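Structural prep section.
Before we set up the soaks we want a predicted structure of the protein with calcium ion in place, mainly to decide which crystallisation condition to try first. Input record follows.
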Amino acid sequence: GKKAGRRQVIAFDPDMLGDERHRRFVERELRAALLMDELELHYQPVFGTDMRVRSHEALLRWRHPVRGMIPPIQFIGIAEESDLIDKLGEWVVRRACADLAVLGTPVAVNVSPAQLRRSDFARQLGAMVAEAGIDPTRLIVEITENVPMIAGAVEQANLDAIRTLGLKVAIDDFGAGHASLQYLRGFAFDIIKIDRSYVANLGDNRIDAMIVGAICDIARSLQVDVIAEGVETEQQLEKLRLAGCSAFQGYFLGRPQALSRLDIASAA
Ligand code: C2E
Ligand code: CA
Ligand code: CA
Ligand code: CA
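Run finished without errors. Recording the tokens verbatim:
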């Protein structure tokens, strides 16, 4: 149609990345995407030590009318520079709450530190959860760290309020971020997700194996769960089990899929 034609002209030229005009263009397209229902959540299963599906992580996808499926790395960073990230975040929570019943497991949503900076974030989240009528203990908030999270009073109050609501909080990409160890001191949380860069080299890097073991030890002491992400081989899974991880996620076990294509027999 006419709209798609307009979009085609300047759509996502990679040479324009980092360019201010490109940023504004993506922002405008994203606002349109929200209105025109171009966003989707794909779900990736997380397995417990018993190898049963214990939760799913919701991962945002953008089905652009011209560009096709756009991964979040191409637009989350731009959304984080404005109120767009809050709008996207709201859409994600509403969609995930609606999908919870079908999934039959708890669901983890990704939340940017930029959202936690808003003083009414937890209150709005609580309102959405109440409106959806879901059990709040079935929603997990993963704090990603694409932008460094300041362990400030507002962030801390939001995380406390989220846990008071009954939701669980996970620290995402643990070990890869700007301030992982500081988070351990500054925040109360329920789950650590070991960054997949440590999992990737588990076979041949002794230091990475030591770090994974140390993170598991810390998690045990704190009595929080450890999810290993990016598990791509059986050997990695074996090493992670031995190290004491409590849950596993990765292409070896299951890829992110649209809800309609997900095999949810194990969760029924
Ligand atoms: P993340 O939260 O660390 O999500 C895991 C990413 O690793 C996903 O990429 C997933 O598809 C990918 N992955 C899963 N298993 C494997 C594996 O075995 N090997 C490899 N190499 N990769 C694997 P995706 O979906 O492209 O998302 C990238 C990032 O975008 C996420 O990283 C998260 O930080 C961000 N993101 C995704 N959805 C949202 C959202 O709704 N809100 C926000 N704020 N950020 C989101
Ligand atoms: Ca995540
Ligand atoms: Ca992660
Ligand atoms: Ca990440």
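Observations: The beta strands are 39-48, 53-64, 68-70, 107-111, 139-143, 168-174, 191-194, 225-228, 247-248, 257-258.
Flagged for discussion at group meeting.
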